[in-house]
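Ticket #4471: structure export looks truncated?
Reporter: QA, pipeline team
Priority: medium

Steps to reproduce: submit the single chain below to the structure queue and open the exported record.
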Amino acid sequence: MAYKTLLTVLTSLAGADHALAAAVEIARREDAHLDVLCLGIDRTQAGYYYAGATVMLQQELIDRAKSDAEELEAKARSILEREGIRWGVDSAVAQIGGLGAIVALHARFSDLVIQPLPYGPTCGQEDEAVVEAAMFDGRAPVLVVPAVGLGGSLGKRVVIAWNQSNESLTAIRRALPMLTAADTVNIVVVDPPQHGPERSDPGGPLSQMLTRHGIRTEVSVLAKTMPLVSDVLKRHLRDQNADLLVMGAYGHSRFREAILGGATRAMLEGTEVPVFMAH
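Actual output as written to the record:
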């Protein structure tokens, strides 16, 4: 099992270099084919006009989205042509509401989707929509890369955030190629339930499963000594000098995560290491 088909989706020139650098590095390491989807975002609203907007303005916004897609495609090709990997580039125009279908079409045939952080001062609504569409509609795992990049040793010191959920187990199974190549894998459990199925051995069954794959594991059981679980995880990542976090994504509904917050969003808003996610 390996990652042989990779995908990254570009939505702006500002983040193109960062996203492509990470994707190219992983493609080279995995000897994989990299597909790049360049999206121009049509910011008109389907079905009706903005108040006071004219048909000419609508067409201008559509033309701008086409131009953005063409510029992204040209940039991607200029970078990839000198990288010495197998690659393909496609471009399209999509409205925010239609992102899911086009991203899913590409993601569902990819082993791994590589994207920059979807939250931050320079990010738009489309960045979050791409990550969610890849996971929920494309059913693909996503590697989210922070602004500092992949670092020099991605996947050597891995931390798994384990909360006994289906989402966590899905992410772990999708991450097995990286976990089997890791030097150390730390399973961290924050405030395990006292009456759960693993109450006497938090993380034990998971550790046993991974050990049978030849993965060296250790288990850390931590108390929630900070207001958010994500804060405990971030501190633990620093203590472990980790270079990758594997976690399940969106244990609650996306609507609840967006309105009330959640561990997924909190981790992605301030992570210093790449995060491997699946749902």
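Status: closed, not a bug. The export was complete when the record was re-opened. Leaving a note from the reviewer for reference: The beta strands are 5-10, 33-42, 86-95, 112-116, 142-145, 157-161, 184-190, 217-222, 244-248, 275-278.
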